[in-house]
Amino acid sequence: MREYRIIGIESSPYAVKVRAVMRYRRIPYLWIARMPQFFDETAHVRPLIMPIVQFPNGDYRADSTPIIRDLESLHPNDRSIWPPNPAHAFLSELLEDMADEWLTKSLFHHRFSRSRDQISGASWVMDDSHPQVDSTTLDDLVANFIERQTSRMPIVGCTPQNAPLLESFLIELLEITEGFVQTDRFLFGSRPSLADFGLYGQLNTLANDPTAGDLIRQSAPRTGRWMRRVDDLSGVDGTWDDRAADTVRVLAELSGRYYLPFLAANMRSIDNGEATVRIEINGHDYTQPVFRYQAKCYDYLRHQYAALSVESKLELDSILEGTQCLQYLS
Cys bridge to 328: 41, 129, 244, 260, which one at CB 3.0-4.6 A? Predict the structure, then answer.
């Protein structure tokens, strides 16, 4: 087998992220919709999350960011999505992590808090996964999926109490992205980084849901068009910027107000043997059960920061000055 196989569905932000990366990097792949005939094939994979990528050697791997890191090491070429500047590379990883682990809360909130979004999102997922079923069976699958997903909302912090915080974060993020997206513009130059693809994955799914899609079309139309371009950047070359754009610093400031405080509080709660995270974020009281995977994310970011050379750390610190990020990283 020479091609990679991406086993996922269009409605998964992580599956389309991996696919967009492989398109940009011109890595041959097959897109395999995760239909019932593939359930047995991937049942052994842990964690059983989308996408699952089968590598040319036959191995199955899950979790989008580690998959993308593996592709970087296995396919070193001039189409890397890691900026060569170590300080910029760290910022790219920070912003991608914020998209994967915090922006996804806004996605989950918008998709399953209102009836029209529940039906739209669940129908998309179930029809993607079971295209052969009749309409009556599909309706049952949709109802069961909505019940299962709404029961999980408190686990990831998507509660009515937290709703204003998750909605304000998305609005702020869209205000920032709308100010920088242009035909040939990305966060670290005229070529895309890991951070660009992380934002694309979550925003692409949000744009296809009714309520969040209306918000993007009305308040961030250029961001919507930017997302459609990021879906396939195989024809883009471009260059890296020597200096971090102002937009990167503004997004880092967003991370310093919303995401990193949550990561630190989550880690403290785990270290103290507590079951719940309680913290004030951007003027809102935020509560959710502890999440061990996000403790690993925090460990990774702090390790990457500590591993920077003195020169790169000085450059990064100058960019992050005043963003509140440094108190959570050092």
Answer: 260
